[in-house]
Amino acid sequence: MLTIGSLAKKTGTKVQTIRYYEQIGLMPEPGRTEGGQRRYGEAELDRLSFVRHARQLGFSLGAIRELLDLSDHPGKSCSEADAIARRQLKQVEQRLARLEALRTELKRMVLECSGGQTSDCRVLEVLRDHSECLTEHEEIGA
Amino acid sequence: MLTIGSLAKKTGTKVQTIRYYEQIGLMPEPGRTEGGQRRYGEAELDRLSFVRHARQLGFSLGAIRELLDLSDHPGKSCSEADAIARRQLKQVEQRLARLEALRTELKRMVLECSGGQTSDCRVLEVLRDHSECLTEHEEIGA
DNA sequence: AAATTACCTACAGTGGGTGTAGCTTTATGC
DNA sequence: GCATAAAGCTACACCCACTGTAGGTAATTT
């Protein structure tokens, strides 16, 4: 039986995060000691590992909920899980493309900065005037 | 003189976001009509364009605050702005590296899925067992 | 038995906004 | 000159995915 702290260590999760997952129904309510402390078994360790691994791969908690659900029903078709993964892959590829454009732009900004006064600073100038950009980088966030 | 709505349109910002920027002190308090509506001039349009452009390049609001401050003091050394941009470039490159690892992993997951039952699903299997991963992808988020 | 460590709940805060409710102001058409 | 509709106003709640804190209790170690 694992305490919440040792489960946290084993999975590289913060204790609060585990309690948070419980709160939002992603992790089950575990058993408790007489004194009211949580105790976990193998099943919970596996489930949390799954969640953390999926998070590392960039899946949202919503997607992870779906994946867990599929994982809990081994008879179901695999195609749903596959669709979720494909969706995720697509997102990752979109982000990659955007980040590559950003890198190009930032590199150019940095290279062109001659180190004088801010009035001549290319970094600030480029930020002031989008038309100086060589690449498109429209979307914000994510 | 621009209304908040036309400023929003010109800069591709939501009206609420402009008010939010004002609230957090990133945009100045503009003049008002007798009836209490905000009215903006060229200076505010330029400032908001700067902010939006920097956001598109992935700068945090904190970094943008610093950049605006530098931009307001044309005599200051450019090196600070340069340092902020370099920091940003580094972050972008780190994210790129991670995302590339994720793409590899997701691609592999999707390729190996044969389309049967979830009990045989490679997607779920890979998520269950990190040791099957070919790449490291430790950090979560961003 | 004391001290330390780990745990508990409840709540606030993070970043960067977005959405909503219920009102007032401004612009347009007749 | 007035009705109506569009756009504005404030204030607040909500989003994601956590993280941090305060004030207290349980479990472990010495």
Automatic annotation (TrEMBL), chains A, B:
Coiled-coil features, chain-numbered ranges: 82-109
UniProt keyword Transcription regulation present: yes
Domain HTH merR-type: 1-70
InterPro entries documented for this protein: DNA-bd_dom_put_sf (IPR009061), MerR-type_HTH_dom (IPR000551), MerR_fam (IPR047057), Tscrpt_reg_MerR_DNA-bd (IPR015358)
GO molecular function: DNA binding; DNA-binding transcription factor activity
UniProt entry tagged with the keyword Coiled coil: yes
Keywords, in A-Z order: Coiled coil, DNA-binding, Transcription, Transcription regulation
Origin superkingdom: Bacteria
The protein's name: DNA-binding transcriptional regulator, MerR family
